[in-house]
Design brief:
About 5% of the residues have low confidence. The relative contact order is 0.08. This protein has two domains: 270 residues, no CATH class; 209 residues, no CATH class. α2 runs antiparallel to α5, α5 packs across α6 and α9 packs across α10. By secondary structure, the chain is α+β, with helices and mostly antiparallel strands. The protein has 15 helices and twelve strands. Helices cover 57% and strands 15% of the residues.
Length: 488
């Protein structure tokens, strides 16, 4: 008995010593984890895309499991980067304390009001270091708590999927062979709905920080005790319950648990859909539907219609930037030379100066793709009957005319030469384009080179841009020369 008590005391002393040195382990784990996560990003997101494609033919649990992969990646990367930043600040603060010691507010020479305010609210430098230490340690533990909760959610969905297949094989084998995993039989439906209801009850209890566990009514507490035990087993939640309870028994960390669901929503929905739009006079090329899709497709090359370009868009994260213009290959076959001219931030200003009556094709600034329609809709400004066919036709016609004017203005900013011979822009076909390798907007051009002999030639593209200098808008230009080899 005495030996057991002594070993516990030794273990606690070891833990006390270890927690003082844990920052080294935290930084090592964070560094390796961040490196590994960025290395595995392509594989994980490809897995997510594959699982999302499968979900059409199977069931919703697979979709939630694939979203878990994406969300876990975002949680680890964002939290561990924050942890490394705070730990670095903490190490810097400790180094500064060694050099200059405590904060001497009297030495600053501020007036009495500021001095008292800073003494009370900022406190001593040691207190600041302690706050950084606590925050960094909590962020590190919070990261793994969030991920373990996600793993439990994924296990719950996997349990649903497994028993869906099992029950269908038992009760509706013929249907699964002909229609796939589609639930029609009443017994599997009843079981799955009951399981979803129990899962929703446990989720509600978690969101309210154990409200149902505080109910003293004997029959309900007995029933919910076994429901909670069952869910804890199938989701493996018992593995992280000690971590959760340690967060809940402190006011400092309890707020982070309350913040968990909004944080999931922020990382899964808001941040991935947040984008910065700079080119209002180019279409947005969003995946979602928009009012003037037919008109825009006539004047654009959209990657979603070309298999090879959709694959290139998936690899967008590892792109190299484009300067001015680019061509697909240094070797050109056939009678047409394809080249891409990148949009410039001053294009909108020059379009407005040249064509006064145009309206932008997209809003600019920070936008949420999933929560706003990016394309400008002139019908919102017209007092017309939604069922008026003539009004709809006029709106579509006005939009296409606006589209042609914008494209014409953007083309007029270009000067194209091949072997120093100017090429008439009217002889070149232009379309709006989103480059699948870099995500840059611009114009895709096709120049007729049938009369060019075989051999080496030089494509020169000059784009006139506006730059503000001393309150005067003056024209400048970007010049790109690209050698290419015409093979036949």
């Amino acid at each position: 008995m005495g030996e057991g008590r002594k070993s516990k005391i030794d273990f606690k002393q070891w833990l006390e010593k270890l927690q003082q040195e844990s920052w080294q382990l935290e930084l090592i784990i964070s560094g390796f984890a961040i490196f590994g996560l960025f290395q595995a990003r392509g594989y994980l997101f490809q897995m997510h895309n594959n699982m999302t494609e499968v979900v059409v033919a199977t069931t919703i649990p697979i979709l939630f499991m694939s979203l878990t992969i994406v969300l876990a990646w975002h949680i680890f990367v964002s939290n561990l980067l924050l942890h490394v930043f705070v730990r670095g600040l903490w190490i810097g603060a400790i180094g500064l304390r060694y050099v200059s010691g405590e904060i001497n507010y009297d030495q600053l020479g501020y007036n009495k009001r500021f001095t008292e305010h800073y003494r009370k609210n900022v406190g001593s430098f040691d207190d600041y270091i302690e706050r950084l230490e606590r925050f960094a340690s909590v962020i590190f533990a919070y990261t793994f708590l969030l991920c373990f909760m996600l793993i439990s959610f994924a296990f719950f969905m996997a349990f649903l999927l497994f028993f869906s297949i099992l029950l269908l094989l038992i009760f509706d084998r013929e249907s699964i062979m002909t229609h796939g995993i589609m639930i029609h039989h009443p017994i599997p439906v009843t079981f799955l709905l009951s399981l979803l209801f129990l899962g929703a009850v446990v989720l509600f209890d978690f969101m309210t920080l154990g409200l149902l566990k505080r109910i003293k009514q004997r029959h309900f507490s007995s029933f919910y005790f076994w429901v909670s035990r069952f869910m804890s087993i199938i989701t493996l939640a018992f593995l992280w319950h000690p971590l959760l309870f340690n967060f809940l028994d402190s006011k400092y960390t309890k707020r982070l648990v309350l913040f968990s669901l909004p944080y999931y929503f922020l990382l899964l929905v808001l941040l991935p859909s947040l984008s910065l739009e700079q080119h209002g006079f180019y279409p947005t090329f969003t995946k979602g539907s928009f009012r003037f899709k037919e008109q825009l497709n006539k004047h654009s090359v959209h990657y979603q219609f070309y298999d090879e370009e959709r694959e290139r868009m998936r690899k967008l994260s590892n792109h190299q930037p484009i300067y001015g213009a680019t061509i697909p290959s240094k070797r050109v076959q056939g009678n047409y030379l394809e080249f891409f001219v990148k949009a410039h931030r001053s294009d909108g200003l020059k379009v407005r100066e040249q064509v006064k009556e145009t309206f932008p094709l997209a809003r600019t600034g920070f936008l949420l793709d999933n929560f706003s329609t990016l394309e400008y809709d002139p019908s919102k400004d017209l007092k017309t009957d939604p069922q008026d066919t003539l009004a709809k036709a006029r709106i579509n016609s006005d939009f296409e005319q606006n589209l042609r004017q914008i494209k014409g203005a953007l083309i007029s900013f270009l000067e194209v030469r091949i072997d120093n011979q100017k090429v008439d822009n009217n002889s070149i076909d232009f379309d709006f384009y989103l480059h699948p390798d870099t995500g840059d907007k611009g114009l895709l051009a096709y120049a007729d080179i049938e009369q060019l002999p075989r051999g080496r030639h030089i494509l020169s593209v000059k784009k006139y841009i506006a730059r503000e200098r001393k309150n005067n808008n003056q024209l400048d230009s970007i010049m790109v020369s690209i050698p290419f080899l015409k093979e036949n």
